[in-house]
Design brief:
heterotrimer, B: 236 residues, 7 helices, C: alpha+beta, OB fold (Dihydrolipoamide Acetyltransferase, E2P)
């Protein structure tokens, strides 16, 4: 018969919502990590400038 | 030394954006809960109708990000301002994420309703093409080092990709597809419409947050590159 | 650093327009293949060339035409577009939204005996979403049609 019938529907719905949250949370973490890294890189780079000059 | 970060008037500041981010997530939790708990099963689909509340907003917001990419790509070509390129790139990254999500959610919805995970009809194929163009946009940026060349090529690919958005949208009307044509408020029960709009706004708010913070990061990345170059020149 | 001239910018714009025009042509040329399925009327109009070739056929399940054998998992129904009817034979249980009047796309071959042998059955959902009316349970149709019959 295969996976047919209303009793299996919640598993598809659950999967869809969990994947959505994984992507949204995952992207949030990604953006914040990139942002923190970029700020750090900028601070390091601009801090080294006066020493070099 | 580090006060140079704060005193540089050009670089974007976090401002109230972190608070806005918290608001986005609270709104998302509310609208998702409403969609999952307050929405009754559909006549044919049963609970599967609820996948609409993530698949359709993801598709709409994905299209919207590519409008942003299109606008800022043209603006870059017109005015040659690097910041426009960085906005376009930020929007493209967010758009690629939502586009991938749209495809995966469509597959999860397709299996129990249509009976297949995937089929090569015009809507599904054109959406996949859009996703691949946007992924190549991001790959292209990683391969070109010179910022101006990178921006020019990105703008070209970004415009090319965004041209696909109306094709994806109209595909169900232009061609005979398995994917149904767009629902309208008249074909959808008002309760479903309300929940769909709630979740669409939740995704819209998130999109704005994501693009803004990604742009902030991109500006700092560029500023760091320039500072390193300046330091290297200063040492010489 | 002054590597970018206005000329190059416009070359890129022109290139983008060219490539997109090419894309449009390509999709336009694919028009025939982009028709995802034939309707019963179109299949019947093909006459002899419509038999025994792999094709997708789409239409609606003609009401009261469904015969389901749940022991043999054998499904027979008539697919209609209002202008033409084609008998379809499929193996296995259809997707849960299968019912009278539902849009369906079948893959397979149209036999010379006038029966379309389907190897795969897909539901083509409309753009309508409604909760069940009072007293009607979701998917009741499927249960009476597929699950309930013979049980």
């Amino acid at each position: 018969m295969g996976a047919i019938g209303s009793e299996n529907n919640w598993s598809y719905v659950t999967a869809a919502f969990i994947i959505s949250w994984c992507v949204i949370l995952g992207y949030t973490v990604h953006v914040h990590r990139v942002l923190a890294r970029a700020r750090k890189a900028y601070e390091d780079a601009s801090a080294s400038r006066p020493k070099g000059a | 030394m580090t006060q140079s970060v704060d005193t540089n008037p050009d670089l974007p500041k976090p401002g109230y954006w972190p608070w806005y981010g918290i608001f986005c997530f609270l709104f998302l939790i509310g609208s998702q809960a409403s969609g999952l708990l307050l929405s009754v099963p559909d006549r044919d689909m049963g609970h599967l109708q609820k996948i609409m509340y993530v698949h359709v907003p993801a598709a709409w917001i994905m299209s919207l990000t590519f409008v942003v990419v299109l606008y800022y790509s043209f603006r870059y070509l017109w005015k040659q301002q690097e910041n426009d390129d960085l906005v376009a790139a930020s929007a493209a990254e967010v758009g690629a994420a939502f586009c991938g999500l749209t495809l995966v959610l469509g597959m999860i919805w397709g299996k129990p309703t249509w009976g297949v995970w995937w089929t090569w009809d015009a809507r599904l194929t054109s959406t996949l093409v859009l996703f691949l163009i946007m992924v190549s946009y991001l790959a292209l940026r990683a391969f070109i080092d010179d910022p101006h060349r990178r921006a020019q090529w990105s703008a070209a690919v970004g415009i090319l990709g965004a041209i696909n958005v109306p094709i994806v949208y109209m595909s169900v009307k232009w061609w005979r597809t398995l994917h149904q044509v767009q629902s309208m408020p008249s074909t959808v029960d008002p309760m479903y419409v309300i929940n769909l709009r709630l979740n669409a706004f939740a995704f819209l708010f998130l999109m704005i947050y994501f693009i803004r913070r990604r742009y902030e990061a991109a500006r700092f990345e560029r500023a760091a590159e320039l500072a390193v170059q300046a330091a290297a020149l200063g040492r010489r | 650093m002054a590597g970018i001239s206005r000329k190059q910018v416009w070359m890129i714009v022109a290139g983008a327009v060219l490539v997109s025009a090419f894309g449009w042509l390509l999709i336009g040329g694919l028009d025939k293949n982009v028709v995802f399925f034939l309707t019963p009327k179109e299949l019947l109009a093909k006459g002899n060339s419509g038999y025994e070739v792999p094709v997708r056929l789409g239409g609606q399940v003609k009401p009261k035409s469904v015969q389901w054998d749940d022991k043999a998992l054998d499904l027979r129904f008539v697919l209609t577009d209002g202008a033409g009817d084609v008998s379809v034979h499929a193996k296995g249980a259809p997707p849960q939204m299968f019912r009278d009047g539902m849009g369906v796309v079948v893959e397979g071959k149209y036999g010379r005996d006038g029966v379309f042998q389907s190897s795969s059955l897909m539901i083509k959902h409309s753009n309508e979403y409604r909760p069940p009316k009072a007293g009607e349970k979701p998917q009741e149709m499927y249960k009476t049609l597929i699950k309930g019959s013979g049980a």
